C-alpha cells in the first residue's frame, strides 16, 4: 500500500482508513485510531444532545447542558484534527528512526540522529497527550449532564462514555510510550 496523505485521514472513507490503519506502514497507527475512537464517542453524545429538548430543561440545567454541548463540539474538532496530526507526527518519527539506523554506530552523526529521533518522539507525544486531556474533559461534560440528555439515547451516552474513557487511556499510554522511547534513545546515544 502506498503512503497515505495524512492530512486527508479525517476525510477518508471508513474502509480506506481501516485499510491504511492495518497496512504495513508506521502511520496511521494507534494514536490516530484512539483519536478516531474519541471522535466517535463525542459524535454519539452530540447525537443525543441533538435529540434533547433543551427548552424543557429547568433553567439551571439548561445552562449546564449548553455548556457541556459546547465542550463536545470543541472536542469533536480536536479529535478530527488529531486523527491526521498524529499520523503526521509519527511519519516524522519514522523518518528520524531511519536516519538513526543509517548512522554509523557510536559516531557523532549517530548521537545527533538519536537526539533528532528523541525530539520527534517527544513532539509525537504531544498529540495523544492533548487528545487524552480532551477526552477526559468531554467525558466530564457528559457525566455532568447525563441526566439531561433525552432518555431514549441513554445507550448512545453510555457508548460515548466508554469510547472516551478507552480513548483517553489509549492516548495516555501512547504518549507515555513515546516519551519512554525518547529517553531510551537519548540514553543509548550517551553510551
**Spans where pLDDT lies below 50 across 5 or more residues:** none
Fraction in beta strands: under 5%
Gyration radius over CA:
20 Å
Biggest sheet architecture: none
Helix content: over 70%
How far do the termini sit from each other?
A: 38 Å
| Number of H- or I-type helical stretches | 5
Structural category is mainly alpha
Q: What is the mean pLDDT?
A: 91
What's the β-strand tally?
Answer: 0
Shape: elongated
The ordered string of helix (H) and strand (E) elements is HHHHH
Descriptive labels:
elongated, 191 residues, 5 helices, 0% strand, mainly alpha
Could you explain how this protein is built, in words?
With 191 residues, this protein is an all-alpha fold. Helices cover 77% and strands 0% of the residues. It has helices at 14-22, 30-50, 59-102, 108-145, 154-189. Helix 2 packs parallel to helix 4 (108-145) and helix 3 (59-102) runs antiparallel to helix 4. The longest helix has 44 residues, at 59-102. The two termini are 38 Å apart.
Amino acid at each position: 500500500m502506498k503512503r497515505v496523505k495524512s492530512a486527508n485521514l479525517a476525510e477518508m472513507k471508513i474502509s480506506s482508513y481501516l485499510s491504511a490503519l492495518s497496512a504495513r506502514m508506521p502511520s496511521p497507527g494507534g494514536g490516530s485510531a484512539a483519536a478516531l475512537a474519541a471522535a466517535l464517542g463525542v459524535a454519539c453524545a452530540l447525537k443525543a444532545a441533538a435529540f434533547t429538548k433543551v427548552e424543557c430543561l429547568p433553567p439551571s440545567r439548561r445552562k449546564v447542558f449548553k455548556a457541556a454541548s459546547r465542550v463536545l463540539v470543541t472536542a469533536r474538532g480536536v479529535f478530527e484534527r488529531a486523527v491526521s496530526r498524529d499520523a503526521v507526527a509519527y511519519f516524522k518519527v519514522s523518518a528520524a528512526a531511519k536516519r538513526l539506523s543509517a548512522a554509523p554506530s557510536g559516531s557523532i552523526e549517530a548521537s545527533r540522529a538519536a537526539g533528532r529521533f528523541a525530539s520527534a518522539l517527544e513532539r509525537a507525544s504531544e498529540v495523544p497527550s492533548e487528545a487524552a486531556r480532551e477526552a477526559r474533559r468531554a467525558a466530564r461534560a457528559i457525566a455532568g449532564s447525563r441526566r439531561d440528555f433525552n432518555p431514549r439515547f441513554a445507550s448512545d451516552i453510555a457508548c460515548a462514555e466508554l469510547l472516551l474513557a478507552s480513548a483517553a487511556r489509549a492516548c495516555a499510554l501512547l504518549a507515555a510510550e513515546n516519551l519512554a522511547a525518547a529517553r531510551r534513545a537519548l540514553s543509548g546515544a550517551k553510551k
